[in-house]
Each structure stands twice: as structure tokens, then as C-alpha cells.
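Bumping with the actual sequence this time:
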Amino acid sequence: MNAVTLGLSAGTLFAMAVVLAYILGWASRKFHVEVDPRVTAIMEALPGANCGGCGFVGCSDYAEAIVADGAPVNKCPVGGASVAEEVAGIMGVELTDTLPFRPIVHCGAHTQDKLLRHDYLGEKTCEAANLVSGVQGCTYGCLGYGDCTRACNYDAIHVVDGLATVDYDKCVGCGACANVCPRNIITMTPFKYQRVMAIACSNKDFGKSVKEVCTVGCIGCKACAKACSLFHVEDNLSSINYELYCQDYTDELKKAIEKCPQKRIILVGKPTEKHLAETKDMDVPELVEAEFRTTVDDTEWWG
């Protein structure tokens, strides 16, 4: 009796397995979606970081967008020029020159520069602190709790004395730091050169109000704009037109740096021997590094 029962059970299980295998095989053929071999080839060429720096969810999503939607082949900040060239070869398109995008932190205030600062006892994240009034006087400046540091997979940004600071030797331009900053003071900027000028402030209040909350904030005096046409002051805040930024403005930039009473025009990026030689006599603070956007409200960057 036991043998018969075991035999029936085994036979039933075997029959079910055969039927299920047939159904799965049929479903696999019936619902099979043909994958373009170029998608597979591009995925193999991409670094697999899935950082989102290309603007897509991950490497596979980007690969599909390149093949199906004609997305640019040079959007991978991690892979850089070599990966872009390989992907262009797979797609049979010509690779055009593009500028690398790097983050710039539009704040230059270290802990000692932030006035009206109070003890914050909540969750030690910028996202949480940004919801609490009175954490620091400046509602535009870097909160310094390291959300950007935790978001970076390349150890390329750290909070130094209360201020987010980019390590350009490690930065790949993925944009993770900019995406998590609740005040939008980290912006991804096209670097025409390894080192560029930037405005280390995001405060849009009037000069008197800025001085009440920060010792180094931009006061909107327009001295930079009068000295160099690359600068534009709007809503009491100076910004740089990176689209026009080039070596031709070197003399004007020097004048703007000298005229700035708050010394908010800074050099950011990787210093080369040429840059060091050109700026050795210039009184330029070595501070943060970034692009431009705004802060409390998510307004659009004009430059």
C-alpha cells in the first residue's frame, strides 16, 4: 500500500513537472522579446556604476535609450571619453566633443563664518535640518550635515569645517551630490578648463541682511559685473555666464576678483601648473567647487 501511494505521488509530481516545463517553454517562446544586440554591447561597454549621472535610472536604461531613442552616446560621466568612443563605435555615429560637467558648491561659509547659528538636536541630515527654522541664520547656505558625502560613491566630496568641499581628483561628475542637496546649492557646471571661477554664495537677500547671517556672503554690490561682462547680478546675487567663459576674459576676471569686497569669486577644479603660474599673484580664496542653480527655491540657473 505504501509503495503504491509513493508511486502515485512520484508519478503525479513527475507529470506536473513535465506539464509546467512545457507551459514555461511555451510562454518563453510566446512572450520572448527580441533584444537588440547593440543594447547588450553597450551595457558591456558601460562601467555598470548605475549612478544616474547620465540622467537615466541606470546603465541598462541608458543603453536602451541610446539604441531606441537616440540618446547621446557621451552621457556617461564615469566612463568618460573612452566609453563614449566605444559606444559611438557600436552605434556607428561620430563622437562630438563635449565638456565635462563637475559640481560647484555655491557657498563659501565655514562654521565660523555662519552667524546666528543654533544647536540642532534633530536628525543629523541636511534634508531634515532644512525643514527646521533657525538652524543657521542663512537659509541659503550649506548646512554641513553630509547628505552629499553619503550620496557620493567615489569619496569625492566631504564636509570640511561645516562646508561641503569637492575633491576634483576623485570626482567623476555623476551629479549624485547635486541631486540630494535640499538647498540646491550644488550645481553641475560645464568645465571648459580644468579650473574655472565660481561664485561661492547663493544668498539672494539684500547686502545688509546677508552680513547679519554670514561674514563672507555675496552682498550684490555689482562690483564684479562692472569689472567683467561675464558676471551678472540678479536678485542681489552674482553669477557667471559659463557659456561665454573663456581665456579672453582673464584680465577682466582679475579685475573682478580684486574688486569683490567679500572675496566670493573663487577658483574651483584641478589646479594645473599653468593655472598655478597664472594665479600666483592673484588674491583668490581657495574654497569650494561647483556649478550654479539657486537654493531655497528651485529656480533655474541662467548661465
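The C-alpha cells above came from a reply further down the thread. The radius of gyration is 27 Å.
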